[in-house]
Amino acid sequence: MQVIKGSDDYVIRLHQDPAELDAAAWDTLVAASPQAGPFMRHAYLLALHRSGSATAETGWAPHFLTVWRGGASPQLMAACPLYLKSHSYGEYVFDWAWAQAYEEHGLDYYPKLLDAVPFTPVPGPRLLATEPGARTALLAAVESLARDNELSSAHLLFIDEADRETAREAGWLLRSTVQFHWRNRAPTAFADFADFAAELQRDKRKKILQERRRVADAGVTFQARLGGEITEQDWDFFYACYRATYRAHHSTPYLTRRFFTLMAHTMPEHWLLFIAEREGKRVAASLVAVDPERRRAYGRYWGSVEYIPCLHFEACYYQPLQWCIAQGYERFEGGAQGEHKMARGLMPIETWSAHWLSHPAFSDAVARFLARERSGMAAYVDELRERTPFKVMGAETE
């Protein structure tokens, strides 16, 4: 840990190991941010580091920042999970074209600074803060760290509204992308999956029921295991499925087996595992993160050891949605990308990132690009919403 900046109001500290941070103080900031969720908890970020998943060796060198109010008893006022990145993998907000443009002009884009939760495209606060002034000071410290070390850029990914406004006021560039989320009916929640399906247009409902029937007719059944119900054997099987998915795409998993071991020990209440079986043999697994306090679930990872038609949709969407409805959850977030999710009742929502580039000419060029992209993105979201899978009142008769 080192002090990198001080003022009459705040002291800024840099931490190159998440273990240096006071977990209770960090989680107090998380608790003070209603939209934070489990992925900003200290245990989650520490597990990414200790498991060898997000480390300097994998291109994620921790440079966490904290903001303290001075005095005899310093108080933690703000913090962020900051990384020095040597690539853009595992981010889900794509800036490869920016890196290529830098390279073509003989400039180094990497390393760059990134405020994000590694491998986790879940919207929420990235500048944890107890007050607006501390949030502003934290963002200024991120920019100063990038500027003082002559880095190309700094980025905040999947930010909430407070972070977006802070970044806008600081002159950072804003970018929007699209995800697909399911929301429970309000004010009267869905009674069961059939009640939810009844809200869909006839063709969408028919397709879902056909897909579910194909999986059932193939003899596949599911077990849902939550928290401490997930055994070490279950985790081993899930990880084999997880690795198989990456292998099928000729890639390497971002997360190590040790990461999930740490999750099972430090955050078991936040994990829900669906295991698919056929003829007494396990054939697939789907892992969902859950936030019992906010009644939200997050689709994370899946894999199978045997191909069965429509099994992916059942394991990744229908089983989790059925569980969310039964448990009274308000939202299921389907993760990055995927228009096919709309046919399963997940609707488009905009997510936001903020970007600071040190080179004036490149910053201006990216600003112009983002203005064009933003116009196209707004039209795209409007078009998606017009293609709602749900019934339009009075437009369909049974």
UniProtKB/TrEMBL annotation:
<dbReference type="InterPro" id="IPR007434">
    <property type="entry name" value="FemAB-like"/>
</dbReference>
<dbReference type="Pfam" id="PF04339">
    <property type="entry name" value="FemAB_like"/>
</dbReference>
<protein>
    <recommendedName>
        <fullName>N-acetyltransferase</fullName>
    </recommendedName>
</protein>
<dbReference type="InterPro" id="IPR016181">
    <property type="entry name" value="Acyl_CoA_acyltransferase"/>
</dbReference>
